[in-house]
Amino acid sequence: MDKKLSDDYRPIISYNMNKKGAQVIIILEFCITIIAMRYINGPYYLFMFNNPWMYFFLPISIYGLIWQFNGLTLVLSWIIYQIFKLIEPPKEGEFPIDSREYRFYCYRFWIIYYMTYVARAMPLPWVDYLAYRIFSLKTGGNNVLYDSWIDPEFLEIGENCMISLNTQLFSHCIYRDKFVVKRIVIEDSGIAGAGAIVAPGTVIGQGAVLGASSSTKMDQNLKQFCIHVGTPVKLALPIKVIDEREETQSEKQEGDESS
């Protein structure tokens, strides 16, 4: 009998998922966005053509076109994503690699990837965070994502959490001949260190820290208020909070005793 996936101590991540069908969707979405921009901006540029003010407003126009492309991409991606969700709703579980669930997950995955790529090209750091929330990411307030890679489906993030640089949160994986989708939960004040890999089914407890370049195995629970390190995580160190006033007082007492 095969052992459970959670019994495997190796970090489990997915490879680059199949793009064949998704490439057509992304190219079609890009073309629709450009055509929509052409018709939306047509009257403006017709009015400004040969106008002496055209060169004055040119920098603003270029910057506005960038934001317009970003906004239209976000709206169109959301519409296409909702259509695919209606056709095949997201599900948790283990599925064959040739299943319908895997195929439609790939479509939804690359639609969101394209949207995120465009959003992160913008100069404001909160654009990708807003885009993730518009889709299906469940997250509280005052969180930091940095340039991390996260799966927006089946991921819950509490409040005051930090997902550090190059951190990877995978609620899905391809393992042997199975496609696995399991929910990841990061409770309030949880931290995933730089370059960490979080496997499907992981629960990062309140105030827990996953160390830099560490990884979890599937269905692993990280204890609250502990620093977890290892690949995969095997060591949990309690977080000691030291009151500076108490530390100063103890140092004074030691100084008085020595004198």
From TrEMBL:
Q: Tell me which UniProt keywords the record has, alphabetically.
A: Membrane, Transmembrane, Transmembrane helix
Q: Which residues cross the membrane?
A: 21-40, 60-84, 105-126
Q: Which InterPro entries match?
A: Trimer_LpxA-like_sf (IPR011004)
Question: What's a single GO MF annotation on this record?
Answer: transferase activity
Q: What is this protein called?
A: Uncharacterized protein
